[in-house]
Amino acid sequence: MLLNAQETQLVLVDYQSKLMPVIHQAEQVLANAVRLAKIAKLLQLPIIGTEQNPDKLGPNDAQLKALCQKTLTKMYFGACADGLVDELRAPPKPMGNARSLPKHIQRKQEDQSEKNTILIAGCETHVCLLQTALGLLDEEFDVWVVTDACSSRTEANRDAAFDRLASNGAELVTTEMVVFELLQSCEHPQFKEGLALIK
Known about the structure:
This protein is α/β, with parallel strands linked by helices. It has helices spanning 26-42, 54-57, 62-67, 84-88, 103-112, 125-138, 155-167, 175-183, 191-198, and strands spanning 8-13, 47-52, 70-74, 117-122, 142-146, 171-173. A 6-stranded parallel sheet has the order 3-2-1-4-5-6, with helices on both faces. The longest helix has 17 residues, at 26-42. It is globular, with a radius of gyration of 17 Å.
């Protein structure tokens, strides 16, 4: 029910230079996306950005793009069709003698590299973010949509997307919820740095 940094990856969808000027509350949305990327980087979570047809819509915001380990260029609205799932899945481990091990040890080994929880935020919420998140749900990822780092040109479209995502099994959270859940404790070694991101 709570986020766990060991199991989580961050996907930031289409914060592009020609798109952001028409996005509702763009400045706040982008600031929250940067906060998400900074807490993810602080906690060493994988961070993947996407850009929709960047020749036409421009690159992602430069500060945000610099925080991503990889930026995936896409032409489909849903990034899964352009290879996002392959980027998120850990490469398979060689089997070796694993079959001879007791089941509880086999599972523990498999789970160690599994990062099946996807934090996702982006624009436009009702198009690329929605289709990417639904694609990830279909691939059996646990999808957590960071609502205050998402937007569309209109509130109505954004809110309709949130309703649809929630009804299909996505968790809806805010940037502050994410920061505190990933840190878990005020005794976390990066607590002060994490707290500074949202104060």
